[in-house]
């Protein structure tokens, strides 16, 4: 959702939009050859775009990364019967791996993954803490 707003405010170049559409079509058609070819073209186009992309556009991406960690952490903590904070943190760690993967795939400015990874961990912890304070543990009482 956040990245969608970012695309509305900062539309991606036409080449990237076309490649994204072609990539979706290749996935729908289960055309592995086309998928690999289009993905390699998209990686080059995205890396080139990121060198000149407006800072605001990149901030929307970072906010989406951090937001996913927060809301994922909320969901994990709210559904965990116990250990709410560790479960929320686990989501933040998964997000960090995702950010690292995307950062290796496309050339990002250094500040993007750094802020994204730190923000993901902090926001997932915040989500777990908020839920832990709001919902009491549903763990059974120890037998006396």
Could you explain the architecture of this structure?
The chain is an all-alpha fold. The chain has one domain (2-134). It contains six helices and no strands. Helix 5 runs antiparallel to helix 6. It starts with a helix and ends in a 10-residue tail after the last helix.
Helical segment tally?
6
Q: Into which percentage range does the β-strand content fall? A: under 5%
> Based on CA inertia axes, which overall geometry fits?
elongated
What's the count of strands? 0
Share of helix, binned: over 70%
The H/E string reads HHHHHH
Radius of gyration: 19 Å
User: Which stretches of 5+ consecutive residues score pLDDT under 50?
Assistant: none
* Largest sheet, strands/sense/barrel: none
Coarse structural class: mainly alpha
As for the number of domains, it is: 1
Terminus-to-terminus distance? 49 Å
**Can you give the mean pLDDT?**
88
Outline of this structure?
The model has no long low-confidence stretch (mean pLDDT 88). The chain has helices spanning 2-9, 14-28, 32-52, 55-79, 84-105, 111-134. The chain is built from six helices and no strands.
For the structure shown, list the relevant keywords.
single chain; 144 residues; mainly alpha; 6 helices; 80% helix; elongated
Sequence-ordered SSE layout with sheet pairings:
Layout (H helix, E strand, L loop, with lengths): L1 H8 L4 H15 L3 H21 L2 H25 L4 H22 L5 H24 L10
